[in-house]
Amino acid sequence: MEKEIKTVFSGVQPSGNLTIGNYLGAIKNFSRFSEDYRTFYSVVDMHAITVRQVPAELRKRTYETLALYMACGLDEKKNTLFVQSHVPEHAELGWVLNCYTMFGELSRMTQFKDKSAKHAQNINAGLFTYPTLMAADILLYGTDVVPVGIDQKQHLELARDIAIRFNQTYSETFTVPEGYIHTDTMKIMSLAEPTAKMSKSDTNPNAVVYILDSKDDILRKFKRAVTDSDSSVHFSEDKPGVSNLMTIYSAFTGKSLDDIEREFDGRGYGDFKLAVGEACADGLATVRDEFARLMADKAYLEQVMKNGAESAHRVAFKMMSKVKRKIGFVN
Ligand code: TYM
What we know:
binds ligand 1, mainly alpha, 13 helices, two-stranded parallel ribbon, 7% strand
């Protein structure tokens, strides 16, 4: 039977300051679904501990990530906003799904390979089974659509495979989710090394523009952004730096790539970088103001977390009961 209202789930790790990659690739797209879908957006703190976190910072970033969701336009009355660890079914289903996920499948995950190279002293089992927890997040809510950046595509495909495998072993239980990957902004690149993804864990602060950076910082970072020895503002594979800046400019202004090429024809990179910086800083100004307002009222954020956890739990509990029945756990 066709479900009437479709469900959307996505999550962001509170593992660092959020970047314009997180914003343009994911969070900005979340609000597209608020009106016509049942939406769940989680601050996935359990994912964050696969890499060592300083406890006080993790706690602070959990509040901040929730406040950023709201500051980026997610109305807490229209979206279920919650913290992953407040809904214990995530861990519970995560364990169950570990038993339906193959060692070989997890070994092929490129993010696991990258992260284990980066954290060679701490290749913990959680880092390895991270994608099954992500599958649990998604499958718990009967999710139809998952808005994410391209770096999550492989994890999402694994979630689909796990859902199909479970459904075939028992009977129809999980909805097989589809990704929503916004092609224009699915991979915002580092400003210092434009062939690598912009990442919140980058140690070079000039490579990354954070959503909460001041206007001065934003202008400075774009001014320094790596481009090339040419001077034409033109989108192409062999001009990754300029193309990345064009993507960012287009996302903040709504202008097409052709219009941007025309706008900066014969004007050189200096003018262009300044315009990108201005557009980005202006586009984020209201987010910054709203974030400051929300962070000043911690009690309200806690109320939002509590309400969100209650609504999420109601749905997650039902799915978990169904899963337990299917696999033969005694009620
Ligand atoms: P995370 O916290 O690394 O990133 C959050 C979202 O931001 C997107 N993103 C980007 N998009 C474009 N360009 C970039 N440079 C860029 N950097 C990050 C990510 O693709 C992501 O959509 N495993 C997830 C969190 C997660 C999740 C889930 C997502 C846990 N459970 C269930 C969806 C559904 C992660 O680490 O995202």
